[in-house]
């Protein structure tokens, strides 16, 4: 007879306590979900939802930006929402200066003291143009833009320059799409040529600036150019390159993601990593990569685009960039900017469409995760603690 068995037989009170503890452990393990196990249940009781705004709990978001001149975040969540540094909750922004109707905020960019937003009428879907906001007044930017027969698609920004993407207005007799890039010059949007043409067949969706060049991803094309007035499709693309989803830059390094699970790195030559797949071998559709220099980490969301093929999703992939790029693998525990418990109770199994990083100054950063129908999440790097504060729901 073991010592433990003898003790249980000679101490009825202790035997009862052990039985109760065993029942509690079984109950906890029965409620546990996700790879973090029992600790995920404990983590789920931590205050990730303390300052959650219930109205946007199950929302999808199109963008998050910060207007530094007012110390306020703005987000496209259907209409335009805002949250100042001193606020605990998000509230709807006043857009009466744009339209008295309910409006949809499609995309936005911040340049200096001004925020630019592409608005649409929620009832009709008609574009309302590009509007600027300085924290006090809304102003219509180039009211004649876009021209007749063109529809505004999105705003993009890099190197302190604002670009707008338009598409042809399609009807039953105009089924082939074409897309144009325009750059803001003063108060007017001017056309940008692409391979000496005003249009291309695929939509530009992301841009960055590095080494004196603007870079765009546009479907199966990668564009670049040294000025705002003219871009070209690059002659030599990455191996296995296609379906590019986003581009970001860190110094001289360019990072590009794809809908087919690949990541690409360019610095005087191309490197390819991937494809990155789920446990069943199905490739992730990757969002625009976000490089966080201070943490030496690349964060890439997994999303549901294209919806026709229902790609697998699992929050985001996190890469330790001290690894050789071509052979790098995602961290298993998401331990650079989070941990397994926090990830398992926040973004695991979710579609993350973007991970914008906002520089708060003084060495502090806020990383957002834009999700599809699972609300807005954020994670803050505190330079005083030299640590990430883990994911919380906005």
Structure at a glance:
With 394 residues, the protein is mainly β. The chain has helices at 3-10, 12-31, 38-43, 340-344, and strands spanning 63-67, 72-77, 79-84, 91-92, 103-111, 114-121, 127-133, 138-141, 150-158, 161-168, 179-185, 188-194, 206-210, 213-218, 221-227, 230-233, 244-250, 253-258, 263-266, 270-273, 285-286, 290-292, 297-303, 316-320, 352-354, 357-361, 364-371, 376-382, 387-388, 392-393.
Describe this protein's structure:
- The protein has 394 residues and is mainly beta.
- It has helices at 3-10, 12-31, 38-43, 340-344; strands spanning 63-67, 72-77, 79-84, 91-92, 103-111, 114-121, 127-133, 138-141, 150-158, 161-168, 179-185, 188-194, 206-210, 213-218, 221-227, 230-233, 244-250, 253-258, 263-266, 270-273, 285-286, 290-292, 297-303, 316-320, 352-354, 357-361, 364-371, 376-382, 387-388, 392-393.
- The chain has a domain at 236-394.
- The strands form six sheets. The chain has an eight-stranded mixed sheet with strand order 9-10-11-12-16-15-14-13, with no helix packed on it. Strands 25, 26, 27, 28, 29 and 30 form a six-stranded antiparallel sheet that branches.
- It is globular, with a radius of gyration of 24 Å.
- The protein starts with a helix and ends with a strand.
- The model is unreliable at 1-45 (pLDDT under 50).
